[in-house]
């Protein structure tokens, strides 16, 4: 597989016009895009439809977290949208996760539901009244991932630091989507738990999510080429000719 098949570019944009400009700028080099809260709140369903209309796969990262009935109804309301991946918070619990997975299987695009474990902006000590002080952060992520798997959801979103333990516990087709990926020249921004692209793939990531280091680059296609080299992956034929 090429990097194009495994890289998700995060379109954390204030409006659809800016998002589409980036999609067009990157061209055939990127197949997957993340539509998160900012863009979805700004442009709604049209954001998903427009990006998918350009032949791209959409990862809708809404991190839904509410009572089971509300999450189920929210996902059913997404029917008709071409979504490949969809996030909910694993901390919503097994009943909510089961409701999410069942709702996703009932809509047309049948997106894979991913449970977000511990945000990569956290180190595990920010909420002492919530986090169990007797369990390290990796243990917390593994516990949440087990709840996700037992509920019938398709995978998790987790930092690259937990990849090795997660992959030992959950073989494919359980998906692991990993933000917090940085190249050697990239700033970490607000990400706390990061690794390199090559490390993430070697440890078992199915997809990596990168935003600012690509979108803010003067030459984003050069960044993609550097990422491919760092990952030990080859550009696809479509990328080379696109």
Give a quick set of tags describing it:
globular; TIM Barrel; alpha/beta; 8-stranded parallel barrel; single chain; 242 residues
Structure description:
- This protein has one domain: Aldolase class I (TIM Barrel, Alpha-Beta Barrel), CATH 3.20.20.70.
- The protein is 40% helix and 16% strand.
- It contains eleven helices and eight strands.
- An eight-stranded parallel β-barrel has the order 1-2-3-4-5-6-7-8, surrounded by six helices.
| Overall pLDDT metric | 89
Number of self-contained structural domains:
1
Q: What does the radius of gyration come to?
A: 17 Å
Fourth CATH level, the homologous superfamily: Aldolase class I
What structural class is derived from the secondary structure elements?
Answer: alpha/beta
CATH topology: TIM Barrel
CATH top level is Alpha Beta
Largest sheet report: 8 strands, parallel, barrel
Overall geometric form: globular
Write a concise synopsis of the structure shown:
The radius of gyration is 17 Å and the shape is globular.
Could you outline the blueprint of secondary structure elements for this entry?
Elements: E1 7-10, H1 16-26, E2 32-36, H2 37-43, H3 45-53, E3 57-64, H4 68-76, E4 85-89, H5 94-106, E5 112-116, H6 137-150, E6 155-157, H7 163-169, E7 175-178, H8 197-203, E8 207-210, H9 212-215, H10 220-231, H11 237-241
Parallel strand pairs: 1-2, 1-8, 2-3, 3-4, 4-5, 5-6, 6-7, 7-8
Helix pairs in contact: 1-3, 4-5
